[in-house]
Specification:
Blueprint lengths: L2 H6 L4 H7 L13 E2 L4 E2 L6 E5 L5 E6 L5 E6 L4 E2 L6 E6 L7 E7 L3 E2 L3 E3 L5 H13 L8 H4 L13 E3 L13 E2 L13 E2 H17 L1 H4 L15 H14 L12 E3 L17 E2 L4 H18 L9 H18 L7 H7 L15 H15 L25 H10 L8 H19 L22 H19 L2 H14 L24 H5 L48 H17 L2
Parallel strand pairs: 2-10, 11-15
Antiparallel strand pairs: 1-3, 3-7, 4-5, 4-8, 6-7, 8-9, 8-10, 11-12, 13-14, 14-15
Helix pairs in contact: 3-17, 5-7, 5-8, 5-12, 5-17, 8-9, 8-11, 11-12, 12-13, 13-14, 14-15, 14-17, 15-17
The protein binds ligand 9MR (2 copies).
């Protein structure tokens, strides 16, 4: 996306639409009507938000014929706790007939078009999974699978150096190891075990929760039609990298594979800086244990396709667990490390000072793998405390989800299983409190803290928690709220953006993503979830137009704090969209 291309070719779709949008009934598109820009299931809830107080009525019109199919009144006004802005709700759940429609508000304008149809989020789910394919390291991405985003392989990672912080028996400083494959973490080109951890756990859990759905879920990657679900093929690409991150001499796992400093805004094949693996530590090792245990468990079912891979995972998991037992307090502290060792490493730190939650997750996965309850000995499940939402630094709930998923098979005693389920349900119930007062009628954003770096992943992970609560309680209110967060991500939010690249009418065009910036192609790589509003504005970009938490977003590639993409945000997006496809019509 060179600037010349940007100015001529990449006029955002919403501006084009606005420019040519005076249709047969003379209404212009109003960006003050906010809705899921993809669409709605015939039988599920359908909401749009109209910003402002003065308009009171709405109409739904069919695109093409212009025929009015519903007239309704907007809701009572709601006030945003973040901006003080007033909004009203249009509820058109009643319309169930498949077709293409707009919401019209007399005197204001019409919305972007949307569809009502079955499987309305199938394409979104597929594209978000395919997003991982584009992030693959060390491999050509050919036109056959990537169309105009084809590119040569970058970062072979076959000559990776042992950093001074990572020296061990048999691996001296600057010794060379082979550690290819994996996914680029985000807008940058490094590979981080901690962030791979939650990403892989989320995708593997998606497979375990809905295995039948993925049997024929084809996203057109080189491995498609190899008799293995594409979801697993994609995950295995990163798994093979992760397995190389374990020190064979003792089982500890390196924190990351990284340049000392971030590459410039260049294509991967132009990047030539040396790369290092850095310090083994407890948290990276436990995340690795959880992933390899879960992968081993799943891949036992694919032994004929990947002979020995499941066993390698199990062996790696056990070795990692033993290392962590012996080394429970080695934490990654980049600043301290840089005082002791050269070269300084200034890429993503993913520093975390508490391993309590990683122990829960790793123990849960080891238990579900081996069926040995001993793994839970001495592990505080902490069900007496509120369940924290999953993030890269907080994975306790991933352990809960797995124990709940296997509670029957493991014959978990009710004094263990019940409190786990109760904490998930309590978490979901707390989200639902005051939902009808929220300006966008979403659980996302109720709390100002939801708008942190990567807020889109907060919305997606809340959605996942609601879906687990639904699987426990079968209460449709949880599903509706989960769908509300998907609607949020696809446009029903205070920025009006659809946050998944390649989708929506008002779409993200300039993510902080080296692949999309350096490729000279106007459209960003599709299927990647933008981080979303973050009032921290740590990137100090000058193009933000608002400081309000829910609006603190700029579609500018300078904005790594609000408009980067990352694997740990895409994974819950895939989960949410695919799970909703499974559970709603
Ligand atoms: O591109 C980097 C992005 O992936 C990170 O999330 C972000 C925060 O660590 O840093 C970005 O790199 C910037 C660096 O921190 C400061 N100099 C400019 C770099 C590129 O914008
Ligand atoms: O997602 C991370 C966020 O929680 C942190 O606040 C932020 C600053 O440390 O870093 C984010 O992770 C970035 C990582 O450090 C480097 N790759 C890009 C990630 C997404 O911005």
């Amino acid at each position: 996306m060179k600037s010349i291309f940007r100015s001529f070719l990449a006029i955002p779709l919403h501006i084009l639409i606005a420019a040519f949008a005076t249709n047969s009934f003379g209404q212009n598109v109003s960006t003050d009507i906010r809705l899921n820009q993809i669409g709605f299931y015939p039988k599920a809830q359908k909401l749009a938000v109209v910003v402002g107080e003065k308009h009171l009525a709405f109409e739904i019109k069919a695109v093409g014929s212009g025929k009015s199919v519903l007239k309704g009144q907007l809701s009572e006004p709601r006030t945003s706790q973040h901006s003080g802005k007033i909004s009203r709700l249009a509820d058109f759940t009643k319309i169930t007939k498949p077709g293409k429609y707009v919401v019209e508000v007399p005197g204001l304008g019409k919305s972007y078009p949307f569809e009502i149809k079955e499987k309305v989020h199938r394409e979104v789910a597929g594209a978000a999974l395919k997003g991982f394919y584009y992030q693959r390291v060390s491999i050509d991405i050919p036109e056959k699978f990537a169309g105009k985003w084809a590119r040569p392989a970058g970062h072979p990672d076959n000559k990776v150096l042992i950093h001074a912080s990572a020296v061990s028996e048999g691996r001296a400083e600057n010794a060379v190891i082979n550690s290819p494959k994996g996914w680029y973490d985000a807008g940058d080109y490094n590979k981080y075990i901690v962030n791979s951890g939650i990403t892989m756990g989320t995708l593997l859990s998606l497979y375990e929760d809905f295995p039948a759905y993925f049997e024929d879920f084809n996203v057109d990657i080189p491995e498609s039609n190899n008799g293995v679900p594409d979801l697993l093929d994609e995950v295995i690409y990163n798994l093979r990298w992760m397995l190389t991150m374990q020190d064979p001499s003792d089982g500890g796992v390196y924190h990351k594979l990284t340049n000392p400093r971030f590459d410039g805004m260049i294509m991967p094949d132009a990047a030539k800086n040396p790369r290092y693996v850095v310090q083994k530590n407890t948290i990276a090792t436990l995340d690795f244990v959880a992933v390899t245990a879960q992968a081993g468990r799943i891949l036992k079912g694919f032994e004929n396709k990947f002979p020995g891979l499941a066993d390698s995972c199990v062996t790696a998991a056990v070795k990692g667990w033993e290392w962590a037992k012996k080394n429970p307090t080695i934490f990654y502290n980049q600043d301290e490390l840089n005082k002791k060792f050269d070269p300084d490493i200034v890429t993503g730190a993913y520093g975390d000072r508490s391993a309590a939650d990683e122990w829960v997750w790793a123990a849960a996965e080891m238990y579900a793998l081996t069926r040995k309850a001993d793994y839970l000995n001495g592990i505080a499940l902490e069900t007496d405390k509120p369940m924290p939402l999953p993030t890269w630094s907080q994975v306790r709930a991933l352990g809960y989800y797995t124990l709940i998923r296997f509670s029957d098979e493991l014959k978990l005693a009710s004094n263990i299983a019940d409190p786990l389920k109760a904490s998930v349900v309590k978490f979901a119930d707390d989200l639902l409190v005051d939902l009808p007062k929220q300006p966008y009628h979403t659980v996302m954003g109720k709390n100002a803290k939801d708008y942190a770096w990567g807020s889109s992943s907060v919305a997606a992970n809340q959605g996942i928690a609601l879906i687990y609560a639904y699987s426990i309680k079968k209460n449709q209110a949880y599903m509706q709220a989960a769908l509300g967060n998907l609607d949020y991500l696809l446009g029903r939010n205070a920025t009006g953006f659809c946050f998944l690249t390649g989708f929506g009418s008002k779409r993200v065009m300039h993510p902080h993503h080296r692949l999309s910036i350096a490729d000279e192609i106007a459209d960003p790589i599709p299927g990647l979830l933008s981080g979303g509003p973050n009032p921290g504005q740590q990137d100090k970009c000058t193009t933000y137009t608002s400081k309000f938490a829910d609006e603190s977003f700029t579609d500018d590639d300078c904005s790594y704090a609000s408009n980067e993409i990352a694997i740990n945000w895409n994974a819950p997006m895939v989960y949410l969209a695919a799970a909703i496809e499974n559970l709603l019509r």
